[in-house]
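#structure-requests
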Amino acid sequence: MAESNRERYLKVVDMKGCGWVPCRVGLFPSTWYKYKEKLEAIVINHNKLFPNFSKGSIKYSDPSSLFGIRRAGNSFVDEWGCVWQFNIDGLQGQVIKHPLEDWNNLKNYSPPDPDKGIAPEGEPTISWEVIESSVENARRRGDVVTVGMPHGFFFMRLHYLRGFTNLMKDFVLEPTGLEKLIEIVTNYNLALVERIAKLNVDIVTFGDDLGLQDRMPISEKTFRKFIFPSYKKIFQKVRSSGARVYLHSDGHIMEVVDDLIEAGVSVINLQDRVNGIENIEKKIKGRVCIDLDIDRQYIVPFGTPEIIKEHIKNAVTSLGSKNGGLMLYSEIHADVPLRNIDAVCNAMEEFMDYYDNC
């Protein structure tokens, strides 16, 4: 009997002998709004990447339905009391007001109620009823059952609450409030994953951008002291339930990938060029499943189709294996020309079966 896509996918994640390279292309709302029918034609032509897409399912004529709250000029107060400002249609905003910028506010501060649900970064809360329904629907379809924690769940939440500069100073000066703040954010995340653990899911996804363009904003020692202990508590809670931990982190993070693996990460979604494919191969290939984020700063928007194909081929041949452990993701924004979108899709469809033995 043939294995389901869910079984194959989890074999890839667990590196248990399935060399298939799962590939995803993320088409951002601004990209749909720019290209409309022309983009739809590309998607329809790439059924291996978009097997469930149906013509007319994207309402690209209606900016409100595409962008939601993420409209230029909008602001939003999230469940933590952070004020978000959105400057570009369809893209995430920035926190412009930090409720704990003054430590005096900590004594009367109350974190969100985890029983209300999960709030995506900069967006309203999704109730547990909706999450549970989504889980059951995925299970009925035979899909991989995934629940996503908020992007910016820990390190970023700390600087959303305090302000980035303040938090960097906190890591040096170690004010009395820092320990309490870390405890508040840790306990909130533990409460969420405890609830998720009861749903019997395959994967819990996390996002926390730890890196800058060519380094981290904090030292490995600082990460180990202030971030790692909470990561480990949260991730081990997930792992003890039988689920895998998927962590997305933008930027250069090579200094802490050993710590992330030790904390319990099953899949690391990291950027290719800022970390270096050779570095990734030497440091973590075969130790953890790699979900490689194809370069969206230069290669995808500005490269030729030939360069894109060669880059994706190099990623697969360098990081892939007949045992699994590699996935690819390409995030497509409005600065990417149509021919390059098509080139990404063509290359992914060509090389996703490079090692396939399952």
